[in-house]
Amino acid sequence: MFESKIFTLLHKTLDFRTQRQDLLTSNIANKDTPGYKAEDMVFEKKSGEGTSCR
């Protein structure tokens, strides 16, 4: 059971990092686009909440 929780946490962490990398790539690709606002993601360690954009 303990291993299952660790693997679940690792999976969620990797998913978050992949999504954040995609978002940062978009920020870089659009840096010269007029009116484009860069975004970032925050990983919140709260039950029921995963990631959020700000």
Topology record:
Layout: H1 2-29, E1 41-46, E2 49-53
Describe this structure in words.
This protein has 54 residues and is an alpha+beta fold. It has one domain. Helix content is 52%, strand content 20%. Strands 1-2 form a two-stranded antiparallel sheet.
Largest sheet: 2 strands, antiparallel
| Rg value | 14 Å
Q: What percent of residues are in strands?
A: 15-25%
DSSP strand count: 2
Roughly what is the average pLDDT, rounded to an integer? 85
Give the helix/strand class. Answer: alpha+beta
Spatial arrangement of strands, main beta sheet: 1-2
For the termini, the CA-CA separation is 34 Å
Instruction: Give the number of helices.
Output: 1
Helix content percent band: 40-55%
Described by the principal axes of the CA atoms, the overall outline is: rod-shaped
* N to C succession of SSEs: HEE
What key phrases describe this protein's structure?
two-stranded antiparallel sheet, 54 residues, rod-shaped, 2 strands, alpha+beta, 1 helix
Quick take:
It is built from 1 helix and 2 strands; from the N terminus they run H-E-E. The chain is of the alpha+beta class and 54 residues long. It has a two-stranded antiparallel sheet with strand order 1-2.
